[in-house]
Write a structure and sequence with these properties.
It holds the Pfam family ABC_tran. It comes from Sinorhizobium fredii (strain NBRC 101917 / NGR234). Helix 2 crosses helix 6 and helix 3 packs antiparallel against helix 6. This protein folds into three domains: about 325 residues, ABC transporter type 1, transmembrane domain (ABC transporter transmembrane region fold), CATH 1.20.1560; about 180 residues, P-loop containing nucleotide triphosphate hydrolases (Rossmann fold); about 70 residues, no CATH class. Strands 6-7-8-3-9-10 form a six-stranded mixed beta sheet, sandwiched between helices. With about 600 residues, it is an alpha/beta fold. About 35% of the residues are buried. It is built from 23 helices and ten strands. The structure holds adenosine-5'-triphosphate. Adenosine-5'-triphosphate binds next to helix 15.
């Protein structure tokens, strides 16, 4: 029931984590400060009695009569001063406790919001890679940058609601002690107001989901403007992009306006209803003959109660208004409907005999109509040799790299590493055996040194050696800051060829058992590429290298070649046997499996 009433309750519970233990303290501090406030207000009764010259306890009962007796032995002026001092002391103490509660709730809020952000980053790092192939990056960006903050705000609102709820309970108890009849009247009225409020709050859920959904679209547009800056300018699409962006922004504005106006109607409405209720309570008390000091104390208590009740109701409507955000954050944190990360526990160290693709069939996750990329594909990559993986664009070469790195898993068939199925091998250990240099793998926003050592501790000498092997040392040395040059977002301050050479150095510094080059040098000039090919030859016989390229020169040093086409292996042989063939002829080369050496 509670889960139905409060979307994201489970999320809030998880975010609070160990801080849940502090919630009783929040309640106790809230109750204590409200009790002190109630006592202070109760002391108004004898003060008014003294001021009005009416110290008779007749007509008073229960707590009112008890308050009337405070300082009974003292003379008039001393008694007034003592009671006034007591009221001031109670007010000071109440505010000290209220401040302590603010510090405590701020502490809990900070911890809980950190825990939400940390859980989101943890989930994004752990989740199976196919998730990123299917999801809209704008949605993910929106959850991390917007919705997570709203989820944090919801926690703050819940904490504030606990404090206001405690105050409401105590002040209602004080009212009850003053006059149970008037309190019953007020309590029933408050229940009716709450029902009206809850019905209206429930209408906030749909606009809240709209805001979330339009925010995701807007975040996607923002990402597009940032990433496609060159494309947009080259094709002169500024005005079209502006129109599309403004439309997305307008949708967010409109959805936000609908949500906020509905939310905004609730406070004035409840204030009017509360005022009418409280006035009705006071008028009825007068007709019922309740004494003047009690009515005044009751009115002051009601006056103090009203903001707490209103804050409670506002908390309720705010949480309804954030239900879309809470649902989004909860969706991302929920692992049950997300691709699992690769599993396996068998240890692996190096590559001894080789890699075997055994009748591997694969389609990318998505709709049922997705095409088969690899169809019962069988080939071998021998250890210590260099294998060229070639085929026309879209043949499935990068997909093979994705399968080898276990970003995706085969639908059918097996990949064997030295005879052991890859899905039984510890994925983290396996990835440590591999280094990939690819046109798709970006540089990180840091120095050249940080980029080369990303994922691998290395001495300065090792970094320089890797940079020399990748033909990068020459241009790095000429930069004013050398290896400390900051490359900018995705290496924006470097040329494409320079970026590729740094990415290659990053792969080489690992000195991996298996080096995968996926179009890793296609932007490098011919001379540099020739030198890189010489470097790669040095690995021959020692380490395994897989080279994907459309350039004949780049694969020239390879021992073996696997030709892919139409989702299958067309040929696997020694490259030397096809030395006379051009790249186009290689793409068309077919050899029945049994004749492949
Ligand atoms: N994330 C993805 N989701 C769905 N289909 C994909 C995805 N990535 C690639 N494909 C499809 O898989 C097929 C093989 O793509 P892949 O990138 O492996 O080809 P490739 O041989 O490396 O091509 P190229 O030489 O152009 O880099 C293509 O038809 C492509 O459309």
């Amino acid at each position: 029931m509670l889960r139905f009433l409060m979307p994201g309750l489970e999320l809030l519970r998880n975010a609070l984590g160990r801080q849940v233990r502090l919630l009783p303290l929040v309640v106790i501090l809230g109750l204590a400060s409200a009790a002190l406030e109630g006592a202070g207000i109760g002391l108004i009764i004898p003060m008014l009695g003294i001021i009005a010259g009416n110290e008779d306890a007749a007509g008073l009962s229960g707590i009112s009569a008890a308050f009337q007796q405070v300082g009974a032995g003292l003379d008039q002026s001393d008694r007034l001063l003592v009671i006034a001092a007591a009221v001031l002391a109670l007010i000071i103490l109440k505010n000290v406790l209220a401040f302590a509660n603010t510090v405590l709730t701020t502490f809990i809020y900070g911890k809980a919001s950190h825990s939400i952000r940390s859980a989101l980053s943890d989930q994004l790092l752990r989740i199976g890679y196919p998730f990123f192939l299917q999801q809209n990056p704008g949605r993910l960006l929106n959850i991390i940058s917007n919705e997570s903050w709203r989820a944090s705000d919801a926690i703050q609102t819940v904490l504030a609601a606990i404090v206001h709820g405690s105050a409401t309970i105590i002040l209602l108890a004080c009212l009850l002690l003053l006059s149970w009849q008037m309190t019953l009247f007020v309590a029933l009225g408050l229940v009716l107001v709450q029902i009206v409020h809850a019905v209206l709050s429930a209408t906030l859920k749909a606009p809240s989901r709209n805001v979330t959904s339009f925010n995701s679209d807007l975040a996607a547009r923002m990402l597009h403007l940032v990433h496609a800056g060159r494309l947009i300018r080259v094709f002169g699409q500024e005005s079209r992009e502006k129109t599309a962006f403004d439309a997305a922004s307008h949708s967010v504005r409109h959805a936000g306006f609908v949500l906020q106006t509905r939310q905004g109607a609730l406070p004035p409405l409840t204030e009017v209803l509360h005022s009418a209720l409280f006035l009705a309570a006071v008028v009825s008390a007068w007709f019922a003959g309740v004494s003047f000091p009690v009515i005044v104390a009751f009115v002051v208590l009601l006056y103090r109660l009203q903001p707490h009740v209103r804050a409670l109701q506002m908390s309720w409507s705010q949480i309804q208004g954030w239900s879309g955000s809470l649902e989004e954050v909860r969706w991302l944190l929920d692992s049950s409907d997300k691709p699992k990360p690769p599993s396996g526990s068998k240890p692996v160290k190096g590559l001894h005999s080789g890699i075997e693709f055994d009748r591997v069939t694969f389609r990318y996750p998505g709709s049922d109509a997705r095409p088969v990329v690899l169809r019962s594909t069988t080939f071998e990559i021998a250890s210590g040799r260099s294998t060229a993986l070639i085929g026309r664009s879209g043949a499935g070469k990068t997909t093979i790299v994705n399968l080898l790195c276990r970003f995706v898993e085969p639908d059918e068939g097996r990949i064997l590493i030295d005879g052991v199925p890859l899905d039984q091998i510890d994925p983290a250990q396996w990835r440590r055996q591999i280094a990939v240099a690819s046109q798709d793998l970006e540089l990180v926003d840091g120095s050249i040194h940080e980029n080369i050592t990303y994922g691998q501790e290395a001495t300065v000498a090792e970094v320089v050696r890797a940079a020399k092997l990748a033909e990068a040392h020459g241009f790095i040395e000429k930069l004013p800051q050398g290896y400390e040059t900051v490359v900018g977002y995705r290496g924006a301050s470097l040329s494409a060829g320079q970026r590729q050479r740094i990415a290659l150095a990053r792969a080489l510094v690992r000195d991996p058992a298996i080096l995968i080059l996926d179009e890793a040098t296609n932007a490098v000039d011919g001379l540099s590429e020739a030198a890189i090919v010489e470097t790669l030859k040095l690995r021959a016989g020692r380490r395994t290298t897989i080279v994907i390229s459309h350039h004949r020169n780049t694969i020239s040093f390879c021992d073996d070649v696997v030709v892919l086409g139409s989702g299958r292996v067309k040929s696997q042989t020694r490259l030397a046997e096809l030395a006379s063939l051009s790249m186009d002829q290689l793409y068309e080369h077919e050899a029945p499996l049994e004749s492949q050496s």
